[in-house]
Design goal:
The protein is of the alpha+beta class. The chain has three helices and eight strands. The radius of gyration is 14 Å and the shape is globular.
């Protein structure tokens, strides 16, 4: 089941997307309820799903006792789905019940390869997020 594009427009990640781009993304994303205590990403496993937070609080634990908390609507998790190293670098656990949007790696690659301009726009955003998260994971923050 896909979502309505209007859900994406207020999210920072999609702020500069036009209506057609929003609709393309919305068609590929699926809503998912996450239970409190649920682990949705496990460090070291193949990165098969990308997530966008709609609600909830998520603790991301990296190696060497480094962690961050993500709870802002529109923040993303699982960027390794489309960026090297293609395995998750942190474990993500929901602190409370929440809702996310998810897209499989296969569907994500189809989305970004199906429209070059949209793919480039998405990848620029993910590259910036990946760079920031790698810095946090490495302890260079």
């Amino acid at each position: 089941m896909s979502i309505d594009a209007h859900i994406l427009k207020p999210l920072d990640f999609f702020a500069d997307f036009n209506q057609q781009e929003l609709e393309e993304c919305a068609a590929a994303l699926k809503p998912r309820t996450v239970k409190a205590g649920e682990i949705i990403i496990k460090r070291g496993t193949p990165a098969l799903t990308f997530f966008i937070i709609l609600s909830g609080t998520y603790e991301v634990d990296f190696e060497k006792d480094r962690s961050i908390v993500l709870e802002k609507k529109g923040e993303v998790m699982g960027w390794s789905t489309v960026v090297h190293p293609f395995h998750y670098i942190g474990t993500v656990k929901a602190s409370v019940e929440g809702e996310v949007l998810e897209i499989s790696s296969r569907d994500f690659f189809e989305l970004i390869q199906g429209d070059n301009a949209l793919g480039e726009k998405i990848m620029k955003k993910i590259d910036a997020i990946a760079s920031e998260r790698r810095t946090i994971a490495a302890g260079s923050q």
